[in-house]
Amino acid sequence: MEWTREKRYLPYQDWDADTLMHLQAQAANSPYQMRYHLHPISGLINDPNGFSYFDGAYHLFYQSYPFGAVHGLKSWWHFKSTDMVHWENLGLGIELDTMADSHGAYSGSAREIDGKLFIMYTGNHRDENWVRTPYQIGAWMDKNNKVSDKTILFKNPDHITEHFRDPQIIKENDTYYAILGAQDKKEKHGHIDVWKSQDLKNWEELGFLDFTNEDMGYMIECPNIVRVDGKVVVIFCPQGLDKKVAAYDDIYPNMYVIADDIDWENHKLINPGKLHNLDHGFDVYATQAFNAPDGNAYEVSWVGLPDTTYPTDDENWANCLSQVKELHLKSDKLIQTPVKAISSIRKNEASISNQVVSDQAGQQFELELTIKANQSDTLHLAANNDLSNSLQLNFDTKNGKLVLDRAHAGQKVAVDYGESRAITLSPNHDLKLDIFVDHSLIEVFVNDGEKVLTGRYFADQTNKKIAFAQDIDYTGKLWQMQTIL
Ligand code: FRU
């Protein structure tokens, strides 16, 4: 079947129920499907959207194209949770029912305002010549999850191209601000554009955020600003960034900058630091973060990359979201840790210290390890019996190095961008790893969240073994994880 433009943009109501049911069954029954991470009900998902706290619960949406593993006509799909681990599927969150979002409801954010959830997102409209207008839309969701009163807030100003999207709504000092990804018309460079409003109706452009002297490539997607432990953190996705400006491995990186503060009126970060990669593995993109009423900042990422094919495309579904992480700062670096409630889905705890961790672990577990200093070895996950096929973590706690290697872990992904990812550690130190595996997703938290390596892998699900290549000095715990969705 060929994915023509016409087919990708076919209105949802023109698809028949049998096709959709078949697609849902394919996604649900795939051996690669995640069981305790948010994943597609059918088709393709990408960015997390509208991550917020409203009416006593956390709300999280994702970009969804329900009819296949392609970036077709996008809508928002809605989930709700009280602990950010157990999620309730609430179905289609934003329907495509106005001129302004006729060609897709792209990414955006949400926050509680006066007893309703205010949602701000990019609606795409295309004319008969397929020329796109990106409208920034405001909508209101009530406590019954009904979205109404969609209004166009503003569209791209004259100096910005059609690449103008992903608004994050922020309130500070009784003023609303929105930041958006933008490309200027003159130089075709990527920026974060800052807007301001007192009433959510009348909006004024303040200008591009001044946060670096470097050229950020040709576009910035999904900018986010959160306050973390007294500082300001900007999380964003530059496209076409020169690797001399900041090193990265994936097709497009997800980066962050820490600053002392932000001067909104002058759209400027105060004392910004340098660019850092948010994740050191593969496939993390479009991370969305928000400041929750409990005082913490939380984030969640798309685990998938634009312009990239994945093995499950053949099963007509693609991608997933990361688990939700809590954010903190330590020595001017972001610390990312699993939300505490993740421990509530652990079961069958086992203490471990042998070379073979488990013959039957399968691929839905958490593994916590403390590996003593001065050793080097390979930990094989999702391995077959003789360990010739596995997802590998190679570590050296003498010189300080950790490598996640998916070269021998089954079906291949984005090999042109490399099959391993390496980080440095402080030499001669014990290494703490908290590893989450969910069928085709791995998340490795290093030394209590100082670094995180995330990635997809597509191993034979009968490869159930976890083992070290050699007998080394370590302690640890292994849990199976409950299925949540
Ligand atoms: C990032 C992105 C956003 C856009 C959305 C469309 O992955 O390209 O910029 O709003 O995905 O699905």
What does this 3D model show about the protein?
By secondary structure, the chain is mainly beta. The protein is 4% helix and 51% strand. Bound molecules: beta-D-fructofuranose. Beta-D-fructofuranose (FRU) binds next to strand 1, strand 5, strand 9, strand 13 and strand 19.
List key phrases describing it.
single chain, 51% strand, mainly beta, six-stranded antiparallel beta sheet, 36 strands, Jelly Rolls, Tachylectin-2, Chain A, 2 domains, binds beta-D-fructofuranose, 485 residues
Short description:
The chain is mainly beta and 485 residues long. It has helices spanning 5-8, 17-29, and strands at 43-54, 57-65, 75-81, 88-94, 105-113, 116-126, 132-141, 147-155, 160-172, 175-184, 190-197, 204-208, 219-228, 231-239, 255-259, 261-263, 268-270, 276-277, 284-291, 297-303, 317-318, 320-321, 325-330, 333-338, 346-352, 356-358, 364-371, 376-383, 391-396, 401-405, 420-424, 431-438, 441-446, 451-456, 465-468, 474-481.
Sheet having the most strands: 6 strands, antiparallel
Shape: globular
CATH T-level fold name of the largest domain: Tachylectin-2, Chain A
* Strand percent estimate: over 45%
Measured as a percent range, the helix fraction is: under 10%
CATH architecture of the largest domain: 5 Propeller
The CATH superfamily label of the largest domain reads Glycosyl hydrolase domain, family 43
Based on secondary structure, the structural category is mainly beta
Number of domains: 2
Provide mean pLDDT, rounded: 98
Distance between the termini: 30 Å
Low-confidence stretches: none
